[in-house]
Structures are given as C-alpha cells and as structure tokens.
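Task: sequence design from structure.
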C-alpha cells in the first residue's frame, strides 16, 4: 500500500519547466522554516502534486526550418488569448495611464480590483492584441486552466482531458485517508478548491490557500466549478471536503488581488480565517508564504485536529 502524506501541496503558475524534486524540496524547507519560527520541531510528511507539465507547448521546428510547411514565426509560446488574457492586457494599458507618483502597489491593486468587477470589459477588450509582459502572462495560465482554449485542445486527448480535468484528477488521487491538510498556492489554490468539490475525494481535510486568486470577480470567481450560488452576491460555494479554511494574502501580491475570501465563501459552521501578511522581497513566492508564522499555525492546527 502506498503511503499517503499528511500534507499535500499544489503549486502555482509558471512551474512548467521546474522539476518536481526541486519544487518539493523548496516547499518542504519553507514549511519547516515556518514551523521552526513558532518553536515546533514537528516534521510532517509532505507531497507536492505537480501539474506544470500540462502547460508545456509541444516542441516545434525553429523559424527558417526548410520543410514544406515551415514553422511559424514569433514567440515560442502562442500569444495569450481568451477573455482572461485580453482583460489583463487592458488592465496593464490602464495602469500605464496612472501618473508615476500615484502608482503605489496598494493603489494599483485597487484599480485592478475595480477593473475585474466590470464584467463587460472581458468581452469589450477580448480582441485586444497589444503585447505586454508580466501581468497578463501571469493570468495566461489561469486563463488556459479555466477555459478550454483552442491551442490546448489538440493535446487534450493525449493527456486524458483538459488541463483543468487532469490537474484536478492528480490532486484527488493524491488525497488519501491520512491526508490532514491541502495547501494551494496561486493557481494551485483554484485546483485544490475544485478538487475538494470532486466526488472522488472521500477524505475531509483542512484547506490552506496562499497567494490565491479565488476571489477575483469575473475572471476567476464566476468561472469556478461549481460556480457561485445564484442570487447571492459573490456567493462562492464552500468546498464540501474542507473542515476549515485559512487564507493568507500578501499585502502587495497582485495575484491575491482580493485579500479577504471570507465574505465570498464563508459558512457559519466552518469559519474561513483570512490573514494579510508581509511577503515583501518575493511578494508571490511560496517561500514567503509557507515561512509565515500564520501558515505554520494553520499547519499545526490541521495536524492536531486530524
């Protein structure tokens, strides 16, 4: 019988070219650092669910290759498409109109939150093709996960489903009777959330989300499975396999755009604990989150209740 870890981690965006061993070592050392900071010598078993490979594009011939059908010119990865990437492109354009002296990280996040609440923007700017860098590329993998994009469909049959289907399946298969806690970082928090709704999961666990985009209206919240409850403003559905839920959001983390998830997903019998934490230096990095005392406290609480 295969041993099941007490803690299951689900990584975030842009890990498609990282190794599972290196990611697991980084997560594990950061987790232990957080426990050390609160005086705990506990060394819980930990496994990381890897799904970054699902975002790799297949190899192709370089530009100029002399074949009957030469490789297309342009970047290795196709230009991000879909409503999420298009809206993110527009958000960057809007941010560039803000005078430099007023571009504090807090103010920029307020602008982004407002833009995401304008549901018409996703359609109005879907055809925008202005090329920008990090912001909409951060949202691109989120878009590929939430939407079955045409450029991903040819690979779906070979891998046994869409990116979303396979990623969620990998998490459900990793959760076993000894699992006490699932930690989701960044896009991994969306994968973990949807996995804890899946009927294949038979174990109740505790949930820790860090750097999570789950609360972003329009782009993420409305695209979740299951979708928000009808008739309830921003009424996200509590994952039925979650005993408790703790959420950590970095003050300057743009991916954790909505810092408090409790107003969206709260239920009376299982309170959702939100904490805004200092992740300066690496605002979205998993190490900045797992080494936090609040993360360590949530880990200890989950293991004590198991």
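Answer:
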């Amino acid at each position: 019988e295969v041993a099941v870890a007490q803690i299951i981690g689900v990584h975030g965006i842009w890990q498609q070219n990282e190794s599972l061993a290196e990611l697991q070592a980084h997560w594990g050392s950061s987790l232990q650092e957080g426990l050390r900071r609160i005086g705990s010598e506990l060394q819980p078993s930990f496994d990381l669910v890897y799904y970054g490979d699902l975002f790799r594009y297949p190899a192709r011939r370089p530009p100029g290759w002399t074949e009957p059908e030469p490789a297309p010119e342009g970047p290795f990865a196709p230009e991000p498409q879909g409503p999420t990437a298009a809206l993110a492109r527009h958000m960057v354009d809007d941010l560039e109109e803000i005078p430099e002296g007023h571009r504090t990280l807090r103010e920029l996040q307020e602008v982004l939150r407002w833009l995401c609440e304008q549901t018409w923007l996703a359609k109005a700017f879907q055809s925008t093709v202005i090329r920008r860098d990090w912001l909409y590329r951060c949202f691109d993998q989120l878009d590929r996960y939430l939407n079955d994009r045409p450029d991903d469909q040819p690979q779906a049959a070979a891998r046994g489903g869409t990116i979303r289907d396979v990623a969620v399946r990998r998490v459900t298969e990793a959760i076993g009777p000894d699992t006490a806690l699932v930690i989701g970082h960044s896009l991994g928090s969306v994968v973990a959330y949807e996995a804890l709704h899946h009927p294949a999961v038979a174990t109740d666990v505790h949930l820790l989300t860090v750097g999570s985009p789950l609360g972003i209206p329009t782009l993420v919240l409305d695209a979740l499975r299951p979708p928000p409850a009808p008739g309830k403003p921003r009424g996200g559905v509590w994952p039925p396999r979650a005993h408790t839920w703790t959420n950590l959001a970095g003050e300057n983390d743009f991916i954790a755009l909505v810092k408090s998830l409790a107003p969206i997903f709260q239920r009376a019998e299982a309170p959702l604990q939100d904490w805004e934490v200092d992740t300066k230096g690496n605002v979205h990095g998993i190490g900045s989150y797992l080494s936090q005392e609040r993360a360590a406290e949530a880990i200890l609480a989950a293991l004590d209740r198991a």
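Confidence is low (pLDDT under 50) at residues 120-133.
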